[in-house]
Each structure stands twice: as C-alpha cells, then as structure tokens.
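re: ur msg from earlier - yeah i can do the flavin mononucleotide complex, just paste it... oh wait u already did. ok heres what im feeding in:
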Amino acid sequence: MLERAHILVCGGTGCTSGNSNKIYSEFQTRLKEQGLESEVKLIMTGCFGLCARGPIVVVYPEGTFYQHVKVEDVNEIVCEHILKGRPVERLLHSEKEEDGSLKAINETAFYKRQKRVVLRNCGIINPESIDEYLAYDGYKAYEKVVTQMTPQGVIDEIKKSGLRGRGGGGFSTGMKWQFAHDSVSDIKYVVCNADEGDPGAFMDRSLLEGDPHAVIEAMMIAGYAIGAKQGYIYVRAEYPIAVQRLEIAIGQAREYGILGKNIMGLGHDFDIELRLGAGAFVCGEETALLNSTEGKRGEPRQRPPFPAVKGLFEKPTLINNVETYGNITQIILNGADWFASMGTEKSKGTKVFALGGKINNTGLVEIPMGTTLRTIIEEIGGGIPNGKKFKAAQTGGPSGGCIPAELIDTKIDYDNLIAIGSMMGSGGLIVMDEDNCMVDIAKFFLEFTVDESCGKCTPCRIGNKRLYEMLDSVTKGTATMEDLDKMEQLCYYIKENSLCGLGQTAPNPVLSTLKYFRDEYVEHVKNKRCPAGVCKALVSFKIDPALCIGCTKCKRNCPVNAISGEIKQPHVIDASKCIKCGACLQGCPKNAIVR
Amino acid sequence: MINSFDDTPKQAAELQAALDELKDVPGPLMKALQKAQDIYGWLPAPVQNKIAEYFDVPLEEIYGIATFYSQFNLNPNGKHKIGVCLGTACYVKGSGDILNALEQKLKISAGNTTQDRNFTLEATRCIGCCGLAPVLTVNGEVYGKLTVDDVDKLLSKYTD
Ligand SMILES: Cc1cc2nc3c(=O)[nH]c(=O)nc-3n(C[C@H](O)[C@H](O)[C@H](O)COP(=O)(O)O)c2cc1C
Ligand code: FES
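and the outut:
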C-alpha cells in the first residue's frame, strides 16, 4: 500500500440510491482541495452488506466504519479523520468494548458471525478495475486448472467439495458439470443464471456489482471443465449497475487477453456475451431462461432432455447460478477439503442471505451453512424493530415457505429447510412480526405467481388463479371450513401436475402457512376476524373512549367524515361510513384507535 | 386509443444500424426489441413489422415476444414514470397503501397513464432497495422510507 489511507465508498445499489455517487465525487473534490490525492486512495466498492445503515464509507488502515454518510459530512471526514486522525464520532457505526474502546468492525454483531467466502471481495476491491481483482489472486484459479489439472480433475474437485447449486434446487454442482462434460458435442455452452427474480432477494446482484470478475473466472473454469468455448450471462434488466459492471469487466478481460482466443497463451478459447431479461420471473427457471437467451418467449421446456444434454441452441449446456459460480475459484485455490470443512453434513460452505422485512439490520449476510435462524435474526440481524415479537421468517420466495417462531433454532441448510416445508431458494429471508397476517402473506405470494405464470400449462395458469380466489375469500371472511380443505387439495393437485418449477412450487407458501398458522386461517373463516388486523374486510376501527383525549386529529385525517366528536370529548367512528383506510391511526397521539 | 407514431429519420437510421449489428448474432430477436425500445421508448406496430421483415420471421412471433415480457411497452409512456415497489419487504412495510393513495390521487389504476400523459403509474417487483422499504421510483430515482403522507409532496414535485 503506497497510500497512507484508503477511503472505500459503497457503490452497491442500496447505497447508490442514497447518493453514494455524489459522496464519492465530493471526496474527490475535498481530497484534491487538501492536496491529498496522492496520499489517500479513494475506491468505489461493491456492497458492504449493511444496507440499512447506508450510505456507507470505510476508512483504512483503521477500518473505521461510517454509516448514514451524507454529502455534507464528507468535508468533516477529510478534515478531521484524514488530516487530523480523529474519527468523526457521530457517524460511526459503533459498538464499544467493555472498556469503552471501539470494537473492530469484524467484531460487531453484524459481521462477527459471518464468513465471507463468496462476498470476500465485495466492499474491498473496486469492481471496475481488473487490476485490483488480479491483485487479490484474480484469474489464478483459472491458470491453475489449465496448467495443473485435467477437466475431469476439476470436476472431481468440485464434486469432492460438496458444493450444491445456490439458485434454489440445491443440486450437486459437480454432478451437473459431469453430465455436461459427458455429453458429446463439438459445441457446448456455459450459462450463468443472473435472473434473481425472488422478491426481496439481492445476493446475486451484490456479487455481480461487487466482484464481477469472480463470476467470469468461474465460468471460464467451467468452460475448461466441460469443453465449452462460449458463455452467456443472463441478467435481469432491473439491475443496471450490475449490467454496467459486467460490461466493463468483460471488456477489460478481453483487453488483457483473459477472454477470447488462446487465453493467457495457454491454448484455450472462451468468451462471454451478456443477455438481458425483460421482466418475466419465470425466466429464472433454467429451461425458460434458455428460451429467453435464444431471444424467444421465456416459456419453460419439457424436461428431459435436461440442459446438460440439449440446452441452449439445442447444444449441451451447463447452467449455474451466480452465487454457485462465486464459490468456484475459492474451491480451486483452497481445495475441496477446505470448503467441505464449512457447513453441515450435506450442505457445505456458506450461503448468502438477503435479510429483509421487519428486522433492524436489513442487508446482505453470508453465513456458514448450519447457522441457526436465531443467530441470523437476533444476533446478525439485530432483532425486530419497535420491540415487536418475531412471528415467522419466509425463505425461498414465492416457491418457499414460512418458518414459524417455534422453529427459530432450526439450523439453516438445504435439507432442514425442506424438512420443515420451506426451501433454501436463492437466499431471500424475509422476517415477519406480529403485525403481519399469514393469510395475507400467502395471498401476496400467490398473486405474484398468478401474475408471473407463463400460461403454458393449465394446472399452473388456472389452478393458481382459483387458489388465489379461495385465499381472497378467506381474507374477506366469506370462506367456509370446507374451503380450507379444498384449498389444500388444490395445492397438491397444482404441485403434482404443473409443467415447471414455477407451478410445482407455487402452492408452497399456502401449504406452509396452513401447516403452521392454521388457527389464523380458522379465525378468519369462523370468527370473521383477522388477528393481525391486516385484512381490511375483517377489521373494524374503534376509538377507546378511555384513551381518547378529543384532540380531533383523527376527525381531520378521516377522508370520509366518518368520525365525530367534540373537542376534548371522546370521538366515535361511524362503522357504516368507515372505509377502513387507517388514516385515523396515523397521528393519534394516544394510540386510542383499536382494530 | 390509437397512438400516433412519428418516426424521425434519425430514429429510423439508428434502428437500421442496430439491426445490422445483430445480423449474425444467434437468437437476436429480444435484443432487437430491446434496442428498438431504447430508440423509440416503446414498440410501435410499424417497428415490430420492420424487425419481423428484417429477420424474416412472422410478425406474430415478434408480437409474441413483445407481449410476453413486462418491460416491453406497446403503448407510449407518460412523462414521469412512477413505480411503486410491491416486493416483499416493501409490501410488508405498507407499500400497498402508498400505491392505493397514488391511484386515488392520479385517478388511474396501476399500469396506466394519466390523461395528460404526465404520469405513468406502475407496480413493480423488488428493485433491490429493501433496506429503504417502502420505496417507489420516479423516473428511476428512488424514494425510500415513505408514508402515505409523502405522496402529495412527491407528486407536486413532478407536476408543472
Ligand atoms: C420459477 C423458478 C424461478 C427460478 N429463478 C431462479 C433465479 O432467479 N435464479 C437462479 O439462479 N435460479 C433460479 N431458479 C432455479 C433454476 O431453474 C436452476 O435450478 C438454477 O439456475 C441452477 O443453478 P444452480 O444449480 O447453480 O443452483 C428458478 C427456478 C424456478 C422453478
Ligand atoms: S422489496 Fe422493495 S426494494 Fe426490495
């Protein structure tokens, strides 16, 4: 390190939307002003993970972690911290040791239990510079496989590591590579699934934004192992920063002779083309993704034949998820045994989760497989805001299910999640508290699937629509107990008869909420009551006369004049006029309005 | 509503160049539509026709692709595009109420454009800013941690 300090500004999507671009340029200006450009290196990095506290700036060598930084704060950081060596206390993400000294960032609750394998470079290197990637062992793994390993040797190493696909299914990556390797063809393809469609998930995006070369290198290794010369990365168009960073990375790699013909003079060819999605969730499913990559309607294909036999343009194709690729170079460089030493018996390594919903530290976390949900929520996630009670966590997105509070000590891995009726999915982890209605959540996911069903097969297209209508009637209080049984039956019917994974998994959110929160469904049906007070048709608003101080605020907030009352007298809501919009709730200083 | 479509010579030339670039690319149709939409902002029927002719495929194949993906517009958009995130995190934090409020104020339902073509209102999937939930975007700019009360102020910012 020639410079005496490094300033890292987060350039992930979360922080960018908090103006980190302007913070970066303000640092440029201020450093120049002070004549510090040559002494201090300024770097725009990928995501640090703690998006809830963004925009984030980290200053090395101390590793000082600043949160919620504003453009106006930059001058103070430069003048106080960089010039005078006094950290700006009010911006610190601080946790103190018992003796009052600042904890190192790796020791804070959010980072302490994490293990960064896939995200190792995110928030460390400048993703737009291939030189920085090279300085962090970049493209060494590729060099190693081509000079020291046979294609079968590479595949054996991946098999031995126990790596399983991170895109949802959890299929053995080594086996998949073996199948693609064993298919005989002069042309084969390597495809990267970067469609990341689960609402609430942004692991793949952060990796592509923070360390695009790691994915490129892994695809090159896969190309060598299975005998492919061309790769495609299919990215959803909603990820403009990721697309841009990939374009830059591919361009730089070509310039350095790392992509293209006769790579590094080692005699192999490989190149990569980007393909952008256009907003269709089903395109994350691998066969639909292949159709879309070919420029067609993204409808799924019948399997078999599997992509390893007949995939893109009818040729044998290996398709893996972004995060799966993110592990490859580390397995090659550190060995399968090192990788297999992390995790549980059947789920090795780490998993990246996007923590969201009712949790204090929303953001990106990478943990060893087998970490308990309790650790994730209470320690890393910092618990539930506003002193509310944890009710359930949802994993696996629209294909997954809910984990109820009583199973909070479940060790997270592929098989445990399946066993309790959820699934790993790609890594979205949404936390819900007592204010969330589980019927409403199931309905929300189903609405998503109905909307995204491609329509090719009937069980999915019509079955899910009917299922949605049944859920809707539960939330409106018009369903019968018989309907609940019918719903369950329909779920199994859809699962068994749908063409692709979208339909086969769509009923999961309904089944898992029915399993763990049946009483909540029953309450809607029998007593016409939504315990969480979410389902509009079933809630009624009342003012508690003992608490109301007659401030008239609710009366003024009500858009339909349903509230009456004199100043300083308890007010009342006319239920026949009330549209249940909830406007009165906001602003009541005494919490006197009850649902 | 029939949407008028003015094809400037500049746009036509850009499209031609884009198509020529894709001539030898395998599976070019989606890329062609994406380029065309970059140029025109939407996919007018004559443009779809031109792409069909260029690649010698039936027009219905082009139309089939254009209607399959939600990002292809078969109608022109309003001047300002509002996208309310209905992703899980945002939904859990009340973005549904914000969408309702906007629908009431603009007197349109999601997926439509106001009469004066000033606003197009859309419900979107997760845009990846869950830390700021609930969020919406106006012309790509993200507004986070919103409440229903912020809606008026926001709209007035984009109304001349
Ligand atoms: C409806 C549906 C959506 C999917 N979406 C994604 C996705 O967004 N990203 C992804 O990597 N895999 C997704 N998958 C899984 C892929 O089909 C496929 O299993 C995966 O890309 C394989 O890569 P892996 O073995 O590395 O996990 C989806 C599957 C289904 C059924
Ligand atoms: S759910 Fe809204 S940004 Fe992710």
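cool cool. Chain A touches chain B through 51 residues (CB under 8 Å). ping me if u need the other ligands too
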